[in-house]
Amino acid sequence: MTRMLIKKVRSVMIIDDDPINNMACEIIIKSVGFTDKVISFEQAKEALTHLKREWKNDRLLPEVILLDINMADMDGWEFLVAFEKELNDAKEEDKFPTIFIASSSVSEDDMKRALSSALVSDFLSKPLNQNTFRNLRNRWFTN
Is the residue at 143 inside a domain? Predict the structure, then answer.
């Protein structure tokens, strides 16, 4: 009998302009053992600056990014374009994060756009809960 190994992801970055959502997600993520390391940003530009610095200094990026679509300073779509442009060499080194759009948008266009992006692995509908992260781990991070 083959046993599936459930791995804990190295780190998760949440990019969402709702601080209450970010705090709730961090609690849920840690409660189900998805990861122990969560960092969140309320501004996509700030997150991008942080990612560029981490990549330049340590060649490290989070294993998972949860990205909201509707944000004021830079929306999720703009973030994806800038992220790919600025950190393209991470893709070449196979260190590119698994990116999930996490949105309360009910727009079918947003869902289609997310799922058609080569950078996005899946579209997650908010509110996120423990089952969301258990399912993500089982689907994307099981050895």
Answer: no
Q: 70: closest CA among 41, 116, 105, 100?
A: 105
Angle, helices 130-140 vs 19-31, to 10°: value is 60
* Both tokens assigned to 44: 């996509």
pLDDT in tens, 74-89: 999 999 999 999 988 8
pTM of the model: 0.92
**Does some domain include residue 40?**
yes
Range of the domain at 25: 12-138
Angle at alpha carbon of residue 74, lines to 82 and 105, rounded to 5°:
110
Question: Per the omega criterion (within 30 degrees of 0), is the bond before 97 cis?
Answer: no
Asked whether residue 22 is assigned to any structural domain, the reply reads: yes
The three-class DSSP label of residue 51 is helix
Average pLDDT score over residue span 10-28: 97
